[in-house]
Amino acid sequence: MTEKIHEALNKAKSMLESKDLDAHAVHLLMEHVTGKSGATLLADLREPLTPKQQTDFYNKTEQLLTGKPVQHIIGTEQFYGLSFEVNKNVLIPRPETEELVFGVLERCRDLFPEDGRVADIGTGSGAIAIAIKKEWPDAFVVATDISEPALEVAKRNAKHNDAKIEFRLGNITEPIEHEKWDVIISNPPYIAMEESKEMSRTVLEFEPHTALFADDDGLYFYKKLAKSLPPLMNKPALIAVEIGYQQGKAVSDLFQKAFPKDRVSVRKDLNGKDRMIFCEIRE
């Protein structure tokens, strides 16, 4: 006799909680194993699992107990209403980054009524570039990364989501030099090395450190961007970057110095933490 869905969920939650791991992950696992999502899963909590589903669920729960992210176990993450392949070569897209995409699109509607030239620097899974292209089909979108394995994931995600993106391999602004851009977006590595001791095992052991950590108290990439972007921008133009919640002043100062006549603003995420910098370059 197999367990009912709610019984298996409760058992798995207890196992994860005993190891101080995120118990919410078992719901995503159950959705994956049963093919039922959201309200359907809730309505069927008293339904029994098939023997195959039960075996599969507990095998995958064992992986969760090692600290492995649920997104790596099921192979996907949702971002901006789209599904993205994720693995050890790319950062798992975060909800905060959806707010960066929303903020960019909102501003671009005023700045660029029709098409625009957009570059996503350090694209990882391609989430930002692909979400922008899906919401703004007339934009010409380029996505760059220094990691070839990351770009391979991003290319598959673009194909899966039917988004025409030009991918370029290279470091920071190197792949987009000698061209002018309307919009530059980046969610660069911004965690200071010394902060690693406060981070969860799930992130530290399974996500790429090159996409997480930066030298110079986490400011290394912002300094490079602030220095190299001024000659690359059209007028008007928009620069948008995601930041660590304690970096608002430092990063906004860097961009204000680089673009002294333009408007640089810090925006908070839904949790009330500084999370985005927008630099609006006017004509």
TrEMBL record:
Organism listed in the record:
Sporosarcina highlanderae
EC class name: transferase
Q: Which residues bind substrate?
A: N187, P188, P189, Y190
One MF annotation (Gene Ontology) recorded for this entry: peptide chain release factor N(5)-glutamine methyltransferase activity
Give every Release factor glutamine methyltransferase N-terminal domain span: 7-75
A Pfam family assignment: PrmC_N
Signal peptide (from-to)? none
Extract the Gene3D superfamilies matched here. DNA helicase RuvA subunit, C-terminal domain, Vaccinia Virus protein VP39
PANTHER family, per this entry? HEMK METHYLTRANSFERASE, MTRF1L RELEASE FACTOR GLUTAMINE METHYLTRANSFERASE
Name this protein carries in UniProt: Release factor glutamine methyltransferase
Taxonomically, what lineage is the organism?
Bacteria, Bacillati, Bacillota, Bacilli, Bacillales
Q: Which residues bind S-adenosyl-L-methionine?
A: G122, T123, G124, S125, G126, D145, N187
A Gene Ontology biological process in which this protein takes part is: methylation
Which controlled-vocabulary keywords does the entry list? Answer: Methyltransferase, S-adenosyl-L-methionine, Transferase
What does this protein's UniProt record list under function? Methylates the class 1 translation termination release factors RF1/PrfA and RF2/PrfB on the glutamine residue of the universally conserved GGQ motif.
